[in-house]
Amino acid sequence: MFHHIYYIYILIYNMPTQAKENYLKAIYLLSRESIDVSITELSKKMCVSKPTSNNMVKKMEERGWLLYEKYKPIKLTTKGEKLGALIVRKHRLTEMFLSKVMGFGWEEVHDIAEQVEHISSIVFFDRMDKILGFPTLDPHGSPIPNREGEVLKVNYLKLGSIKEGQKVKLRGLENSSKDLLLYLNKKRIKLGTVLLIRHIETFDNSFEVLLEDNSTIVLTFDVCQSLLVEEI
Amino acid sequence: MFHHIYYIYILIYNMPTQAKENYLKAIYLLSRESIDVSITELSKKMCVSKPTSNNMVKKMEERGWLLYEKYKPIKLTTKGEKLGALIVRKHRLTEMFLSKVMGFGWEEVHDIAEQVEHISSIVFFDRMDKILGFPTLDPHGSPIPNREGEVLKVNYLKLGSIKEGQKVKLRGLENSSKDLLLYLNKKRIKLGTVLLIRHIETFDNSFEVLLEDNSTIVLTFDVCQSLLVEEI
DNA sequence: CATATTTGTTAGTCTAATCTAACTTATTAT
DNA sequence: ATAATAAGTTAGATTAGACTAACAAATATG
To answer: Considering only CB atoms, which chain A residues are within 8 Å of B110?
Structure first.
């Protein structure tokens, strides 16, 4: 008689709250960067106390989204992995939509997407996807997981590992901090920009780079390590 | 020394949570319909118990959003009125965006907007507004409050109050329930549709209406009371 | 190896938002 | 005018998500 109510209860129980979605996303992204996700690591990423993340991890384990043993790294289950990927999918699709359809700059999209990603409507994101022509990369060159949570493996190199004289195209960013994005704007560098490494200064590892407009700019090694490129 | 922290605290304290935004919106909309908002009324609208809405109303009064005296109707303050209007603004701008830019049907937009309206980014909604060309009405003909929370007064008539022989144009809806919208879709009636009242059946008050394609449809009085029209 | 440091856990508190049960105060109807 | 009904309130409980203080366990370091 009350089977329906039972199933609805189970359904709601298994829906991540906004907070849990954020934890899930954090664990997912850290894992993807091959970082061991400890309770401490997670609490740092989420800006919460250790007991808070500890507690959250236990609740998420109960829901079958991850496995955790004291002092061992947190491991997402298949279910948790998929949930995490789908949140990242919503985030990156939104970023792409904000950029391509609504005309926002790549430095503006993250903060807005951070809120939009928690919208549950599936049709909403499917429509974005369709309007965008089913993109595979977001405005920062990061891959958009597909509807099954599967991610295209992209294999770009850090500019810092490229040799003098090489010509490369900017394909992605290792970190998409607003500061970096604004810096790149100022230097007129965007995805697809062609860079020729004219000289690497051995003293401080800074890169002298020639742009297509024949202007030369100098990038610190730190910045170079944030730029993912493809040799051309 | 800690003045900044104090101000940030005050700022956050004065930001409505998602729940409070929903209460504010409900009170705002009920007030606009000239309905006396009692604790009971509010609890019904919000689908919560009376103690819950009672409690919430007290908290909102503390924040200076409304005035309440036992057994008397809830009255929004200027601040509360504006906050409420701005949430409705976000909701209706979103509906318009979903309809005009993303191609959703007018029966689909409400549920999605219900979530999007809680996004705090101001630039996000301003951009929607700009892309839409600063619309004043949503896809159901309801007015979109401006950035100051001011609302254009629209003065449409209920179809039910129109006399036989009159020709009218559909301008808005008294209630935008999904059922009504789907029904109107089926009858091929949308905003702007011209209706000629051919005959009013005295027996059940049903309206025999001629459409521009020369087809005749019969609308119950209830449906007629939900249709806001302009005489032409 | 012993100690210091880092990591994780426990216990207890807090706020927001919800509930139920039981009660009080108005209003309405007979 | 009084009893019945509706409206509002109080008290106490719950859950999610956060905190601090204090302690325990593992790892790292001198």
So the answer is: none
